[in-house]
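Forum > Structural Biology > Help requests

Title: Can anyone predict the 3D structure of S-formylglutathione hydrolase FrmB?

Hi all, first post here. I have the sequence for S-formylglutathione hydrolase FrmB but no way to get a structure on my laptop. I'd be grateful if someone could post the structure tokens.
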Amino acid sequence: MQLTSDAFVVLLTVAAIATVALTVWLTPKVSGSGIKHVLARLGVLVACQFVIVLALAVGINSYFLFYSTWNDLLGTTSGPVKLERGRGTGAQPAKPVARNVSEMNKASGLHDPKTDGRIEEITIRGARTGLSLDAYVYLPPQYFQPEFAARRFPVVLTLAGYPGDPRNFIERQELPKTAKDDTKAGRTQPMIYVITRTTVAPPRDTECTDVPSGPQAETFFAQDAPEVLSATYRLAADHRGWGVLGQSTGGYCAVKLAMLHSDRYAAGASLGGYLKAVKDATTGDLYGGSKLVRNDNDLLWRLEHLPPPPTSILLASSKVERDFPQARKFASLAKPPLRVDTLFPDDGGHNFGTFRRLTPEIMRWMSAQLKAG
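Reply #1:
Sure, ran it for you. Structure tokens for S-formylglutathione hydrolase FrmB below:
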């Protein structure tokens, strides 16, 4: 009979009940004052309590499984322990990805890497999510200069909106040129910009969300991308050297990543982004019908109901933007340790003209938040 079997527990329970009944029946018969009667009464009581305690111990063991077999209880379990190895590879260090010099260097006026910097093209493949994304990487001139050979540079993940074309940051907003000129003038420190889109599962707009039973976009940007980038470039090892910048949908993603993953991103900057969780024809149901998941992705809700994260946020939006009220409310709700700075010009629409006008100031703000090394 097994130690934890129901039959054994029932047997001992019945025995305990029977012992109690027997004790009640025998006690009057051994009620005399002689030594034999005293010993008899003591024996009856000890036997009764032993069976009751034994029944309780077996019942408790059967429920919590402290000992699963008689050998386990008696300490006689023996025999070799054999490890069965699975087929997976387990945790593996990320490997550097192929770096290709972009054809966009010439059009951007980047001729000599040591004086102008360089744009490269890479593909980021996520080990955790299985997602992949092409990206442009702007490396500052210092990255190629011998005196900076040991330096680990701050990095800014730069996200286009939905559906988004990251080339707009390079061609229309002239991000590499601004970075080069501002660094040369001492307005910003040398930083690396990884320029990509938020659309990791086209044509769906995932809003950088870990979709239940769907694409794990948030994990891709919070874990997969930083791991691959760190294996490929000399990037700051500490989270204080990592920032995320985005416009429109990318702005929402930037603030969300900085808030939910302040251990990875020390700063997030939104250019014309919104702050509430959305659901429309391009997103589908991102939250699996769960109000809890939707609230978790609603940045205004998080500020109103959860402790503020230790990160820095910049909200840049003209006062005539449709989502400006969200930005103003978000800023008003901010409490330490969260820091929220704002850039609210009086005019300007949701267009590249406004984006280009505000981008340099956002880059300077980001430079002030991040640390090299």
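Strands lie at 100-101, 118-125, 132-139, 155-160, 192-197, 242-247, 267-271, 312-316, 339-343. The longest strand covers residues 118-125.
Shout if anything looks off.
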